[in-house]
Design a protein that fits this description.
Strand content: 25-35%
CATH class of the largest domain: Alpha Beta
Bound molecules: flavin-adenine dinucleotide
Shape: globular
Radius of gyration: 22 Å
CATH topology of the largest domain: FAD/NAD(P)-binding domain
Largest sheet: 5 strands, parallel
Strand order of the largest sheet: 3-2-1-7-19
Helix content: 10-25%
CATH architecture of the largest domain: 3-Layer(bba) Sandwich
Distance between the termini: 61 Å
Number of helices: 9
Number of domains: 3
């Protein structure tokens, strides 16, 4: 009997897991069941180049259709509503049942929605999938008012794209600075300057309490009584992992589907990878849930290896990126818990610098703006736990490639 591996969710994790299964020697069937009508596609451009009209849907595909055909990887559009672990059966929305020998959970995450008076009005959008981004694009009109709720990366990237398209853009952030959850004040100040220079109105300490309009949004109201015109509202206030399917099936969940270093769940026949997982990270000595493409891909490889009976530990350094205007931010590691920040370059007037985050004089993370060399160096230092002279690190007269030589 041919064995069957089913992957639930057809995105970044699945696009890596499925071919890695073949490379790892899985000879059985591979079926990817996803609820979006596309083959796996690159999600990051949705708030960047795709939203700005610089990419088409076709150009988003992670791999061409022929690749999956050549590797005998099948796709089915559908939504799984239940997992029966005793009979190893999945149920889909239309009642169809599918049986599996091995199962991979790659359900990702979904946007956190706001529940405010007026939040159901037309013209209020989120950005998670192609349909969302197309919905925003269809409402872009040069000179009209766009209000972005949330000054995180998605909100700021959206602001950048809508500004490029000629909208008047206002960013409303509840905290006292944008990017507060993920960066040092130096980065928040930098991005506030960049957006302001581009004509974006960035307001902090602004809590949105309602949105008004007849059938379509017209105004956004804040707790301090401020009222802003809004022809279009984009909300970017974080995501929630898609765990309910797993939880209902008795799979252990704790802020994500709990996996070990081999991406295995508490069921021997079920692995999980990507945004929907929560793993213990040895490097940071705590459990974490990551929302990034590199994590989804690396966990996809590890999960595939586990299905093929090979123990391939997941221990990659987390990294991320964000594109806004002409700026490429590359982030190595996680900065939470830092006690010192050092800057190489000029974050006040230039458009290129690196912020290094230290804990007990050890580099734990770096935000590198248009600084690919510093990014590569940081990845190396953090991954290999190398020592670095702090004075030399911030001395721009020393070329990056010489920084590790003493
Ligand atoms: C606008 C935007 C910009 C981003 N920018 C960056 C960036 O610059 N860099 C970066 O590293 N990351 C970025 N990310 C995050 C990155 O896209 C995610 O980390 C990545 O997509 C996670 O991949 P995944 O496969 O785990 O899950 P997802 O991409 O979330 O995919 C999960 C898929 O499973 C489907 N699904 C869920 N439940 C079911 C079910 N029951 N049945 C069938 N299908 C189901 C979902 O609909 C979805 O298609 C961005 C995300 C967004 C939305």
């Amino acid at each position: 009997m041919t064995k069957k591996c089913i992957i639930i969710g057809a995105s970044h994790a699945a696009a890596q897991l499925a071919p890695s299964l073949r490379q790892g020697g899985w000879e059985g069937d591979i079926l990817v069941v996803g609820d979006e009508p596309y083959l796996p596609y690159h999600r990051p451009p949705l708030s960047k180049a795709f939203l700005a009209g610089e990419k088409t849907v076709d150009s988003l595909a992670i791999r061409p259709e022929a690749f999956y055909e050549n590797n005998n990887i099948q796709f089915m559009v559908g939504r799984v509503t239940a997992i029966d672990r005793d009979t190893k059966t999945l149920t889909l929305t239309d009642g169809q049942e599918l049986s599996y020998d091995k199962l991979a959970l790659c359900m990702g995450s979904r946007v956190r929605k706001v529940s405010l008076p007026g939040s159901e009005l037309q013209g209020i959008h989120y950005v998670r999938n192609i349909a969302d981004a197309e919905g925003i694009r269809s409402q872009v009109t040069e000179g009209e008012h766009a209000v972005i709720v949330g000054g995180g990366y998605i909100g700021l990237e959206t602001a950048s794209a809508l500004r490029k398209l000629g909208m008047k853009v206002l960013v409303l952030e509840m905290a006292s600075r944008i990017l507060q959850r993920v960066t040092a004040p130096e980065l928040s100040e930098f991005y506030t300057r960049i957006h302001t220079e581009k004509g974006v109105d960035v307001r902090t300490d602004m809590s949105v309490v309602s949105i008004t309009g007849d059938t379509h949004c017209e105004k956004v109201i804040c707790a301090d009584g401020s009222v802003f015109p809004a022809d279009l509202v984009v909300v970017g206030v974080g995501v929630l992992p898609n765990v309910e399917l797993a939880e209902d099936a008795g799979i252990t969940v704790n802020n994500g589907i709990v996996v070990n270093e081999f991406c295995c769940t508490n069921d021997d026949n079920i692995v999980a990878a990507g945004d929907c997982t929560n793993h213990f990270n040895k490097r940071y000595d705590r459990r974490i849930r990551l929302e990034s493409v590199p994590n989804a891909s690396e966990q996809g490889k590890t999960a595939a290896a586990s299905i093929c009976g090979v123990k391939k530990e997941y221990n990659s350094l987390p990294w991320f990126w964000s594109d806004q205007y002409d700026l490429k931010l590359q982030i190595a590691g996680l900065s939470q818990g830092y006690d010192q920040v050092l800057i190489r370059g000029d974050n006040f007037t230039s458009r290129s610098f690196a912020a290094f985050y230290f804990k007990d004089e050890k580099l734990i993370s770096a935000d590198c703006v248009n600084r690919p060399q510093e990014f590569m160096l940081s990845k190396k230092i953090i991954s290999q736990k190398l020592e670095i002279d702090l004075k030399r690190l911030v001395d721009e007269s020393i070329p990056v490639k010489e920084l590790l030589q003493c």
